[in-house]
Queue: 3 jobs
Job 1
Amino acid sequence: MSRHKTGDRFDDDDYPAYTMGRAADMIGSTPAFLRALGDAKLIEPLRSEGGHRRYSRYQLRIASRARELVDEGTPIEAACKIIILEDQLEEALRINEELRSADSSEET
């Protein structure tokens, strides 16, 4: 579940530390909004042993970005697509930079 030992779980961006209610409070939304993001497949919360949704800090950053877009008038489905495209662009730019760095080091 976590890449880190037990004591470091709360430092792990991927550790599902927050309940739905707490997560909604943290991003200034409602539990229904978080459920809608899950329905749209933008974020998929992990489940506790009791079946309750649990969110990580990484997922809350994504949910917060979605809330910003929706607050600006973007439909939730479009907001989810925008966030996915932003994430893909960020990853492509990171890979491009790594490749450029590798090419530069081979030339020297």
Job 2
Amino acid sequence: MRIPLMSIPRFGFGIKGLDEMLSGGLIEGTVSSIIGAYGTGKTNFAQYYIWQGLIQGQSALYITLEERTSRILGYMENKGWDVSQYLDSTFTIVNLDPSDFNLAINSVKNELPTLIKKTGAHRVVIDPVSLFEDLFHDDATRRREMMRFLESLRDLNCTSLLISEADKTNTFASKYNLIEYLSDTVILLKYARGEDVNDVHLAIEVVKMRMSQHSREVKPFEIHQDSVTVYTEATVF
């Protein structure tokens, strides 16, 4: 029997404004991506996504391709979150070295599905998926392998969030202009400048969301030491 869309479980970020834009959160079992240039807070949002799951009793898996475990834990603890109580039980952090092509490809394609099954992870973050995309030397191979990889995530009954660098010349697109087409939901983080070029703000947009209604407005947001605020009542100039 087909489940009504409104009754499908959702995985929120615990960020009121953002969850509101997503009609409650990411849809269970989907693959979503956050795209943004440096300094827009991509990893911040990913860590909120992980933390929200942990405090709700869900298992979480954080795959990092460029940060050490100690730094990930440090960032989260600086927000006032006691993540140590979840380590080795419902929270697992895995470091992958993308410098070794064969090892990295093997780890992501073969070992990651096994790890997700073993940990029973409800929420999975890959930060950044751009480094995995870098491993493929031509567009055709990259598209084929990424399609297979995302389908394997959907088959594992987890709700995944992929962090992607924005293209250097077009900050509205991912580095390879690919992940946004393959993902079920796409969240774009960007800079917004007013008439005064020195007045720089951060803005968020839910570019697409399959199987659900979502806000199509661009909203300003701020990152504080212990919180993120999305101003859904405000407008971006």
Job 3
Amino acid sequence: MSGVTVGLVVTMPVGPMSLLCIQRALVFGALAGFTTGLGAATVLAIYTACAVLGLGPAIISALVYSKAIVPAVSACLLLWFSARILGRTVSLAGPTADGHSAISSYCSAVACALFNPLTPVLLAAVLPTVALPEPRAASTMVAAVFAASVTWWLVVSGSVAALRSSLSVTVLNLINKASGLVLGALGILMAAECF
């Protein structure tokens, strides 16, 4: 299995990062959506590098050891995103009408992706099918995973932002509220895992 395939298999499933990318592309425009995806791709590249360098078992055991901490942090982040989204009204005045910056999108996406338990689990399932005979192959794998993930987020954010201009403010607000509710529900499910 190639690095591109690994990157797409881990990136494409709809989860918290997909919802966040889509919501930000709809509300703030393509740049905010893409930098959100770029944050997720960065974390995926970090996890992939750790896995191909043989640190995968250590990461998995650390996640198992901190079984209550990771879902708790993930739940807090998802609930925080949900509250912010639900408290916001969409305006078509401009893609950054809220002063939402690309750096803010990137950094918050990195935090969310780091504590998304789905990413290391998907990687743990996919990476054993990949043979890495030499260090150069490992770096090629990480670069391919990152490139595939970035390409996917570029397509998603660009497509959603293009759709944005054809939707009314009312529809955008409904989609925004729905994504906030779904992220909140995911946060509650994560919180339930802590008990």
